[in-house]
Amino acid sequence: MEKIIKAEIKHLDEFAELFNSYRIFYRQESNLEKGKAFLRDRIINEESHTFLAIEDGKAVGFAQLYSLYHYKTLQRQWLLSDLFVSPNYRGRGLSVMLIDKCKTLCYETGACGLLLETEKTNDIGNQLYPRCGFEVDAEHNYYNWWKDVIK
Fold this sequence. Notes:
The chain has four helices and five strands; from the N terminus they run E-H-H-E-E-E-H-E-H.
């Protein structure tokens, strides 16, 4: 039986393993300890809101959100920064369940909605998000400025 829970510090080891796999998926080098320290800080300092998908008694997916504020609505908006389900658990609806939990968070916090970005090559995500009610924003370009080169 699957369920979605809020990540707490007691889930750090499992969460860090998933997060490392997520980063590898996006062509980043494996660095479990650095990722674990990053997540520990987010949890302890309450800088993100994270949900874990639990199946077979273990964490198999996650959604991590950060708080933003939207200039048009003058309300909070949640950035759905990271969404990942372990490959062995895909196709079971866990991504949709995680997204639904994120939508519930919007209602609970009075937020105007969710914002996310994904790579154009993420075929699974680019099919999933419209099915979950997301619309592509054709009116804006998104730019990044990095103080150091990111690979």
